Amino acid sequence: MALAYLGSKKPNTAAIMSSPPQLILTQDDLKKIAAYKAVEFVESGMVLGLGTGSTAKHATDRIGELLRQGKLSNIIGIPTSTKTHEQALSLGIPLSDLDTHPVLDLAIDGADEVDPDMNLVKGRGGSLLREKMIEGCCKKFVVIVDESKLVDYVGGSGLAMPVEIVPFCWKFTAEKLQSLFEEAGCVAKLRVLSGSGEPYVTDNGNFIVDLYFKKDIGDLRAAGDAILRLAGVVEHGMFIDMATTLIVAGELGVTVRNK
Ligand SMILES: O=C[C@H](O)[C@H](O)[C@H](O)COP(=O)(O)O
């Protein structure tokens, strides 16, 4: 059956009525489809990295459901944020941390952007540091996205590439970050809360500076190293060569790609 992806648009009911029967899927449906596909990789006894965000939430819900149904057992989850920690607790998923389980079998998480080489931008939900620590310790890292996340190059969506920084003299660090990528027309903005305008504070007590690029920044490893060399930077949201499997749900169905 053909899958019609309407994103957040309202369905055009007249068009639907006059065309062959189609299954109308929202963007959230696609996220759920990708998430459920990823959970097929989960086996009993695994230590699992539990991602953060609206896509990863579906995967964690599904793991909780399979545990309740007795279809999975002896799972240990390592959550990538306090939000996911709370979700997993509410689902009865046994939890641990990297101190106790420094090697994970599998992690499942969403992404904000995925480039053709499966490099990612993550952290628009603010969880990039814990995600990078945990997903860097996994034997297998399954990334789940709807097709809107696919880009030609990192930063290609025109949306943020987040960098976690210490609060101390954040303007200084933000300016340094912006000038690093002057040639790419970079604009650095401190992430603030929409209501109060106060700085957004991560689970680790840090701030986030969002970098917006007008052009391709080129060599991602060089860019990442330059960012990390700046005192005041904690971590950046480029996940370079970390994903081992990419699951994309889109208009034409689901694709699974391994690296
Ligand atoms: O900090 C947030 C994480 O990196 C998310 O995995 C990422 O922002 C994607 O989130 P969503 O699935 O909600 O688009």
User: What are the low-pLDDT stretches, counting only 5+ consecutive residues below 50?
Assistant: 1-17
Strand proportion: 25-35%
User: Which hetero ligands occur in this complex?
Assistant: ribose-5-phosphate
Under the CATH scheme, the architecture of the largest domain is: 3-Layer(aba) Sandwich
CATH topology of the largest domain: Rossmann fold
Number of domains: 2
CATH class of the largest domain: Alpha Beta
Write down the overall mean pLDDT: 93
Structural class of the secondary elements? alpha/beta
What do you see in this structure?
This protein has 259 residues and is an alpha/beta fold. It has 2 domains: 29-151 and 241-251, Rossmann fold (3-Layer(aba) Sandwich), CATH 3.40.50; 161-237, Alpha-Beta Plaits, CATH 3.30.70.260. The protein has 7 helices and 15 strands. The chain has helices at residues 13-18, 27-39, 54-68, 82-91, 128-135, 170-180, 220-229; strands spanning 3-5, 23-25, 47-50, 76-79, 104-109, 113-114, 120-121, 138-146, 161-165, 187-190, 207-212, 233-236, 238-239, 245-250, 253-258. The chain has a 6-stranded mixed β-sheet. Strand 6 (113-114) and strand 7 form a beta hairpin. Helix 2 packs across helix 3 (54-68). The longest helix has 15 residues, at 54-68. It is globular. Bound molecules: ribose-5-phosphate.
Which features would summarize this protein structure in a list?
binds ribose-5-phosphate; Alpha-Beta Plaits; alpha/beta; single chain; 7 helices; globular; six-stranded mixed sheet; 2 domains; Rossmann fold; four-stranded antiparallel sheet; 259 residues
